[in-house]
Structures are given as C-alpha cells and as structure tokens.
Structures
1.
Amino acid sequence: MGKTIILAIKTAFENLEDSPLQVFPKSVNGSKIGKEGRIRNLSDGGKYNMLRSMMQVFVKNSMEAVALYQKAFDAELLCAYPDGSGCYMHSELNAYGQILAVSEISEDVTIGNTMMFCFHLGEGHENQIQKAYEVLKEGASNDTPVGPCDYSPCQFKLIDKFGVCWCLFV
C-alpha cells in the first residue's frame, strides 16, 4: 500500500501544470522564499483559505510528551494550557514550521486513535464550518455538533464514517 501512496503523490506532482494547485518551493538553492513557499489553490480565488491546519495528538502524560517532542524536533512551545492536574488541556509546538498540538486524553489510549485533523478557518467562515459538519455527520460517531466552545464561537468535532477524527473551527 505504501508504494501506491507514493506513486499517487509522485503522479500528482508530475501533473501539476494540469492542476489548479500550484506548489511554490520554500527555498531555492538554500534561499528561503517566505510566505510564497506554500501550496496555493488558484481555482477558488482564495475564498476558502484557512488560517492554519495542525496535527493534534492525544496522549497520556502530555507534559512529558511535550518535553520529548521539544527535544526531538527542536520545537518551540507556542502555547500551553495546564488542566490543573499536571497535564495540558491543550498545547502547541512549532515543529519545523508546523503546528503540533498535544493534549491530555482522559480515556484509555487506543493505538491509532490519538490523532485529529484540525482546520482553523477563521472568523467569517461559519458557513463553511456548518457545511462541512452537515456533510461529515452522516455515519459519524463521537459527534459534537456545531456550536461554541472554550476556544471558538463556532466549532465541531466528530469521527467520520471512515474513522477520521475532525475538528473545524473559526
């Protein structure tokens, strides 16, 4: 299966000229390019640009995990919200320019069930949050419907029918 995925990615990048996606390199000959060094979608006119995406992991002993990830990735701790029991309700690390969010899980850890894909769309994108929820909720489990939470006035979380955990918020 790994070879199939690699082949699909290679094929997608070889055919970029025929795609609405364009890739701008982060560096050329070792020189950093900056903000242009991202994938940009040309077909939507920027209408659906999100503020960020992040890798979210849920672990036992989150403070220990954060320290380990800081050391492993030379990561900067961007924010941390202790939960009062010596753990993090939520924390974010800058790992090579990507956000690695680490949170304490209260349930027993099931290997393969500790990741969440988070899309932070930003204010003014409440309609996209609602649309995504309506599409993904069919057959979903652990559904938290669209509504306010501690960090956003509009958010939802669910595990879709394929087992992928999603959290979208403004």
2.
Amino acid sequence: MDAFVECSGALGLGASSFADYVVVDLVTKSDVWLPYDLKGRPQPDVYAANGPRLSALLRDLSEVLESETDPGEPTYFAKPTETGAENFFHADGTAWDVWGSFEELTRYGVFRHAPGFGRIGYRRTAEGDVRYVPVQGGRAAVLGYLWASDSENAASFEPRNVGDDVTYRAGLVWLERLRAAHDRGLSPSAALAELSAMPDEKGAGRVDPASEPWIVGLDALRELASGDR
C-alpha cells in the first residue's frame, strides 16, 4: 500500500488575540494522521508515514511558541491529543465508522433541505408524486435521479451513493442548475425538461435523451435510490 496520500489543504494554521492573550490553532480536515480512516479501516502505512509528522509539528509549534499544546474538544470524527489525534472505538475494540455515521448524513441533508430554512429555490422534499429521470455517469452507471413536482414547487437530485465523492459532487452540480432555473422563474417540471437536455459537464453526468420521466411517490424514489446503494 502506498503510504503517500495527496491531500491539499490538509492542515490550516490560524491565530487570534485579545489583549495580551494569543491563541494559535492547528486544524486538519484529513484522516491521514489516524491509525484507522474515517470508515474504520486500518491504514498502518499511511499512519506510519504521517502520524509522526503531525506529532513533530505540534512539538515544534509548542517549542517556538513556548506554550503547552492544549487539545481541542473531540469532533464527530476524532479526538485531538497533545501529540496528534485518535480514532473512536467500539466497546469490542473495533474502530468506529464515523464517516457513515455522520458525514454521509450531513451530505445527504443538502439534497433534502433547501437553504434559507427551505425558502431559497425549490423545495427539496415532497409529500406526493414526483416526475423523475435517471442521471447517468460513466459507463451508463446511474448517479442518481433528478425529480420535480409542480404541485409542491419542489425539485431536487436524489443520489444513489452520497458517500461517493464523484456522486456527491455531481449532485451538487444538479442542485446548482436547479437553483439557476428557479431564479429564472421556471416551474419545477420546466426545469426538469430543460436540465434533462443538458450535456455532461463537470462530471455531473447526463440524462439519456430517450428517457421519458417516470411518476412515483418521492418516498418510493428514495427507497429505490437507497436500494441501489
């Protein structure tokens, strides 16, 4: 296993001050410093290559600043320590899949809840039937389903696997397109028709030109998508 993992922006260093009190914060958005990744899978080579680097950085900062390292509060993903960070573990000693427990739920929320407490753009949920079309990515694999409901002024993208980065980014592109259609005054069904004719851009996939919208309850569509995951 290659221990080198390219991770742009893995660390961020910031400082703040009030009167004579100065605080320097080191923040990371990567799991390369942990013995297990965020899905609970062991990564001994990655950890061996990167864990000591974080420990050395924290030690050097402490020496330069002439101050002890004060670990912050645990997050959903890991527990900061004076020398780095630790995974969370179940009672049986296995690492916790915090990605599936928290990150995927956070990601999925954007497809179900419109910004501005649901008042910006189309609603992203519906009680009744919706019209939908599959969105295909590479090799005709279905990334998710684009749907709309005029009666409830609602439209969104239902991803098949929100934990997959490609699918998640594709879904965000479709949300941006729907927001633009809403701002131009299109009804949800008109937006569905317009977006269905768009080419694949930014890896978002496309709707098969021969595909006709299906009608189904949104709960059933979400069950269909979740069954694909």
3.
Amino acid sequence: MTSPAPLTALGRTVPFADGTTAQLRYSLGALALLEQRHGGIDGVLKTFEEIDGTDSLSGVVIGPMLELIGAGLTGSGGFVPHFTERMTTVREETPDGKKTSRDVREVTAVRYVRASDRKELGDLLDLRDFDKLVEAMTRAFEEAFPQGEEAAPAGATVTDVALPDTFRGTSSTTSAPSPSAAQTQPSGT
C-alpha cells in the first residue's frame, strides 16, 4: 500500500500591530472563499504569484493581500468575512416579447473583522512587515497542499489515513424503492 498524504495544514503565526497574533491557515473553508472570489483555484494561485513575485508595493497588491490573509484567518484565526454587495436589476426581453427582470448580486469588497473585538484586519497589519506577511502566506498555502511526508513542516505529526474500500473504486449497487417511497395522501383531506 502506498502512503497517503499526511494530514497537515498547520499554518503560520501572523503578528498584529496591537501585539496579538493569529494562526494563518488555509483550510477547505478558506480555500472555498478564495475560489469564489478569484474564479477557481487557478485564479487564487495567480494572485499568490503576483504578490509573491513583488519586491515592492507597486501595482495593486494591498487589497488582494488582505483578502488572501483574511481568508486564511477565518475559522480558528478568529476572523469573519463581511461582504459588500452591489445589486443590479437586469431587464431583458425574451424572444416571445415578454419583458423580464432579475436581480444580479456582485460582491464588490470583502472586509475581514476579528470576532473578539470587531477590529478590521487592515487596521491590525503593519505594512513594515510586508515581506514577513508574504512569507507567512506562501508557507501556509504550501502547507495546505502537501506533497507527501517530505513536504510536511518540521516537527509536524504525520498521520497515515487508511481509506475504506468504498474510496478505491469498488462498485456499488442500488435496491428497488421501498414502499415508504410511494405517494401518500396529504394530511387533512
């Protein structure tokens, strides 16, 4: 049996200007938030590369960086995303001449707020630590996608997980519907 990937995603500690710290960890929930905002994991990776490849604060860096750090601080990091949306009514005419309208929601901004004291992430981060923040983001993101035991962070506990046969491509069968699936009379008639 080959060894499955270890269960890791320990994250990195991020210091704040008020002297507190939080654990930056890209859990599945954090990755899902980022996927929604960036159009999939490829968009997330592109944003990481744009920030990580920057030696200075030129171009659009701060907003995407706050978003990436904020998503990694949700859950156990104690931060909660707050979405600002714009709703637009789209009016259309169908081929048969009927006029319809529908509301389209677009997320225009995401602010991350610490649940314990309602302070915004942007107010807690110190821009002088830009390089350290980029390094923490990069390492935490790498830990979310381990490539086996050799990629586990030093000192991490590596746990092999045995997969049940249902995950190894065994076939399954279905049975005929039970009598309880039959139509029933609505109550009160």
